[in-house]
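Standup notes
- DV: blocked on the single-chain target, sequence here:
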Amino acid sequence: MDSNASEVALDLFPYLKVYKDGTLERIAGVEVVPPGLDPETNVLSKDIVIIPETGVSARIYGPNLASKDQKLPFVVYFHGGAFCVASPAFPNYHTSLNKLVAEANIIALSVDYRLVPEHPLPTAYKDSWASLQWIASHKEEDGNLEAWIKDYVDLDQVFLVGDSSGANIAHHLALRIKESDLGRNLKILGIGMIHPYFWGTNPIGSEDTDRFRKELVDKWWLYVCPSDKGCDDPLINPFVDGSPDLAGLACDRILIIVAEKDILKDRGRFYYDKLVKSGWKGKAEIMETEGEDHVFHIFNPDCAKAKSLIKHLASFLNQGKAPVE
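- DV (later): unblocked, structure below
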């Protein structure tokens, strides 16, 4: 065997390995489960192609007994995985979406955006933006329409929700939509950001003392976005010079959820502090889970704190369309 075929050139723990011959081996997020009726939650799901030009698909979820007489809030979900692993079909994400849909009584669309390195950034952002354009097309009833959205969704109650890199995507979409043509057709009521993946070159908070994990996160970002700006690229650091002002976020409500043991928690807290001081006119809320680490609710969905997180998020999604006071 060629020694280059088995020699690791880059170990991006815990996500993937790149070998010297260029072969890529994903370690995490590779398992998949089919859609269908989940007997535990009585939530039904199916896979659909939403952007035929690129082949981008999504998994859509809804209560099995949804009625056309009651239009439901709509969550557009962006999964985590550092932009390089996982999918809506990953068993942990599939389970989490089933639980959220059952708890909140909503319709949810989990977007299968394309991954690095096969599709370099900003492809994930472009795919996610295209998914919002596709959703907005249902208001005009034009094009490739999905019956579940037409029949069961209240398109005046659209939320963006994501964990980790998915929360990062939700942030950037909400900034972009405000001044766009899309923003005139599709209103985003709120954003749920779970353990958001923001970063920066200069350490803050616990990043100063947890050098091992600081170096890991540096390495992840420099792999998925090898730009000359490094960890201060505006895609990952929303507070560097030239980044859009948070006052431009196009939504009425934002819920930020952080975890006490997560290396990213200080970035989430910092984001919240900057948001409430930014002049943004909406209502911001932050929730911290004690004693837990990054995306614990995805990997341990039946623990009491994961159930509490989902309940809190469901409550956020069920506030209705009343104006923010």
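- Follow-up: Residues 123-140 form the longest helix (18 residues).
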